[in-house]
Specification:
By secondary structure, the protein is of the alpha/beta class. It is 44% helix and 15% strand. The protein contains 27 helices and 24 strands. The strands form 4 sheets. It has an 8-stranded mixed beta sheet. Strands 16-17-18-19-20-21-22 form a 7-stranded mixed beta sheet. Helix 7 packs across helix 16 and helix 14 (391-414) runs antiparallel to helix 17 (486-497). The longest helix has 29 residues, at 47-75. The protein is globular. The protein starts with a helix and ends in a 19-residue tail after the last helix.
């Protein structure tokens, strides 16, 4: 069972790394290999051969099984002809509607057959529901049937090194299109293309929608009982698993203290609920002679515990940690029912098999690896010991083991490890699991509010303690993303160090862990220059690196009051690459799509110098970095690479009558292997000025195309003078501005430029080294089979 589960996991994981789904011939070969797994259950072969056969056979089976399910899921796709067009759909609100600052977002199960629309989509409503001629938020509730006019598009997200894969996240949830509800305008509705949003049924009588309705009622009960309370969202998450109820700042606190796993419905909470009900049923059952004779109390308790875990998982939204625990509880319940003892490792292996058989995309979730790894570490250090230590010593040993055992995975997934997590968890686990969570559950069901008030008061004390721990110096260890080969070595070393006392030379595990921290990812050599144009949607963020220095040119857009490109894209990239500080930040001009993420970057890491064309009273200039205007003529040298601002001139910078776009900082970078020109959002007037003032400095090997390829820039004269080998367009997928314009693209084609686009290629990396230039696009380098939009990535946007 154990080798079969590990093999199945490997096979599923390998399938999720494929750029294309395997064809019929490959599936036939893999299916033949899967037959080898049958030898693992034969008693005629040696245990070693049986274990190897189980591993190989189930690896092939996992690969084939995941491929079949992936093909079925991808077949449920949006007809490309419907993208960006009005489509009439009817269906059911399938999950908890999530409010955001401009409206509400919800999953929607489509019931309109034959329309070319996938079965499950995510819709956003940006206000404007005019039931009484007022502009408000669409009043959708879980389990309601509605009819909408919508505009949809196929899944698409940013593609960046060390970044979040939004398309994979949607695929795992079965969401095959996203879009928004078309609202009637105040001036009337065109009945030929749209219909007014209409509620067709207040409740759809299906179990899953009824459960979602219960979850929504519980959320409203807690929110209504604790209005304006700062931690009401945490109680909602603990009661019904709605993680969106927790503020982003609170998630950051939990990450710094290592207690994120507790602040939603986790495996520990499911175990607690199942154990409490099992003990209660066992206690009551033994006191009834009739019940005890009809069914042994042990079996009744096992059944009650499983049903309690199942009910709690349903109300939680069936997250991976909850699933894992449910299946473990189920295996234990079956063993008790049939009177057959089973080992902890077999229980974990069975849960692993069931989770991946039902959801092969779980391996794409950090929660999957962390939850199973945490339980495996606990079993490893708590089982098979000859002596039972004091419970307090055992608790401390488990906390240390989990912190050390999960460190490699946390560094791979998040590039950070909380050093205060053993202390934080020692306090938070008993409080959250045995006090706060039961109070949250009871408060969601009981008709009075004092239970929730008590839970919030205790949570208030816990949060104050966590904030104190998070504020300690060196509370979190940050570093680069580990190289792939260092992770299995580190896991083996940690496992060796966690062996029981008496094993010889446990200290030998330490050298195996050292490469995880000591071996850094590649970086530019002497005279080298690496340029990375990040995929931030409709905006701009460029990282320029030399041997010992790093510069950020613009910081992408802000998405809302809590999220921007700085926190979601730039910082994960910098940390993953091992860049813990910036020597310079250039904010080219005061446009939200260029400066929106700068605040997050300035707050999160040290910045030596802030160059900009911003007005003196701009909020960003209050940062502690040394500030200077990016006036033409300023130049410096880093590691054999020269940097020089070509624009704006002192007169243009001082003239506030000029458009902000034409005051953009234009930065020229020259390395021994080539030249790069970063132009921000300059338009015709600034291009004309550059052609008159510095024509000899304009030719470049790579050009960041001005103003995202708009019709107001890239004049024929400018393009001809720069004559770039590579023209990089930083544009958002299906952006509303229509960037880049076709006539602009044609000018660069005529100039012989290779076109590179972030919307089709993801992050664009240009690596200049003496005598060499390498160009990579993230959607080509790290392509996965679900990245539909990269299938049309043309030769003109990829470099050999």
């Amino acid at each position: 069972m154990r080798f079969a589960a590990l093999g199945f996991t490997l096979g599923v994981w390998l399938l999720q790394q494929q750029p294309e789904l395997p064809g019929a011939a490959w599936l036939a070969l893999v299916s033949a290999l899967a037959a080898i797994g049958g030898l693992g259950f034969s008693r005629r072969v040696s245990p070693i051969v049986a274990a190897g056969a189980s591993f190989i056979g189930f690896a092939a089976l996992g690969f084939a099984w995941a491929a079949v399910l992936a093909q079925l899921r991808l077949s449920d796709r949006l007809d490309p002809a419907l993208e960006g067009r009005d489509v009439l759909v009817s269906g059911v609100v399938a999950g908890l509607p999530q409010s955001f600052e401009r409206g509400v977002r919800f999953e929607f199960d489509v019931e309109s057959p034959g329309t070319g629309v996938p079965r499950r989509i995510v819709l956003s409503s940006y206000g404007g529901f005019a039931s009484d001629d007022s502009q408000g938020v669409l009043p959708v509730r879980a389990g309601e049937r509605w009819r909408f006019t919508v505009r949809l598009r196929r899944p698409h997200g940013g593609a960046n090194p060390h970044g979040f894969d939004y398309e994979a996240w949607l695929l795992e949830r079965g969401v095959r299109a996203t879009g928004y509800v078309r609202m009637p305008s105040r001036r009337g509705l065109d009945e030929r293309t749209q219909v007014r949003p209409e509620r067709l049924a207040a409740r759809v009588p299906r179990p899953r929608y009824w459960i979602e309705g219960l979850r929504e009622a519980a959320r409203e009960k807690i929110g209504g009982a604790l209005p304006e309370r700062p931690y009401a969202g945490i109680l909602i998450a603990l009661a019904i698993g709605d993680q969106n109820a927790i503020d982003p700042q609170q998630w950051q606190l939990f990450a710094r203290t290592g207690v994120s796993h507790l602040m939603s419905i986790s495996g520990l909470h499911v175990t607690m609920v199942a154990g409490l009900l099992a003990m209660l049923v066992s206690w009551c059952w033994r006191r009834s002679e009739t019940l005890a004779l009809a069914l042994p109390a042990q079996k009744a308790a096992a059944l009650a515990g499983f049903l309690a875990a199942f009910a709690y998982c349903l109300i939680s939204g069936f997250a991976v940690p909850a699933q894992r625990t449910l299946y473990m509880v189920g295996v234990v319940a079956l063993a008790l029912w049939f009177g057959r003892a089973t080992s902890a490792s077999r229980v974990l292996a069975a849960a692993l098999l069931i989770v991946l058989a039902l959801d092969p995309w779980a391996v794409l979730s950090p929660g999957f690896w962390l939850s199973f790894a945490a339980v495996a570490v606990i079993f490893f250090v708590a089982s098979g010991r000859t002596a039972s230590p004091h419970w307090l010593a055992q608790w401390g040993r488990v906390q240390w083991a989990v912190t050390a055992g999960l460190a490699p995975l946390l560094l791979v997934l998040f590039q950070q490890v909380s050093l205060v997590s053993p202390v934080a968890n020692a306090l938070a686990i008993p409080l959250v699991s045995f006090v706060i969570t039961p109070l949250a559950l009871a408060g969601a069901m009981l008709p009075f509010d004092w239970v929730l008030e008590l839970g919030h008061a205790i949570l208030d004390i816990l949060m104050a303690t966590l904030e104190w721990l998070a504020a300690l110096p060196s509370a979190v260890w940050h570093q680069h993303a580990p190289l792939a080969w260092t992770v299995p070595l580190a896991l083996a070393g940690i496992a060796w160090m966690l062996l029981p006392r008496g094993f010889p030379a446990r200290w030998l595990g330490a050298p195996l862990v050292l490469p995880l921290f000591a071996v850094s990812p590649p970086s530019p050599g002497a005279g080298g220059l690496w340029i990375t144009v990040l995929d931030v949607g409709q905006g701009l963020a460029v990282i320029a690196r030399t041997e010992r220095h790093a510069l950020l040119y613009d910081a992408g857009p802000a998405f809302n009051a809590f999220s921007d490109s700085g926190s979601r894209v730039i910082l994960p990239y910098l940390r993953g690459e091992g860049i813990d500080g910036l020597d310079a930040l250039v904010v080219s001009h005061d446009d939200r799509d260029h400066s929106g993420g700068a605040g997050s970057v300035l707050e999160a890491m040290p910045v030596g110098l802030l160059w900009s064309s911003l007005s003196p009273d701009h909020a960003l200039l209050a940062a502690p970095a040394w500030r200077a205007p990016c006036v033409a003529g300023r130049k410096w040298l880093w590691d054999g690479v020269s940097f020089e601002f070509l624009h704006p001139s002192p007169e243009a910078l001082e003239s506030r009558a000029a458009r902000a776009n034409n005051r953009s900082c234009v930065l020229r970078i020259e390395a021994p292997a080539g030249r790069v020109l970063l132009t921000g959002d300059i338009e015709r007037d600034a291009e004309r000025e550059l052609l008159l003032r510095a024509p000899a400095l304009l030719p470049a090997d790579a050009l960041l195309v001005p103003h995202h390829g708009s019709a107001t820039s890239s004049t024929q004269e400018f393009v001809k003078r720069v004559a770039p080998r590579h023209a990089v367009f930083a544009v958002g997928h299906r952006n509303r501005f229509g960037h880049p314009r076709e006539d602009v693209l044609e000018r660069y084609r005529e100039a012989g430029s290779e076109l590179l686009r972030t919307d089709t290629g993801g992050a664009i990396q240009l690596r200049f080294a003496p005598g060499d230039l390498r160009v990579d696009a993230e959607r080509v380098r790290a392509r996965r089979y679900w990245h539909e939009s990269s299938s049309g990535y043309a030769r003109e946007s990829a470099s050999a």
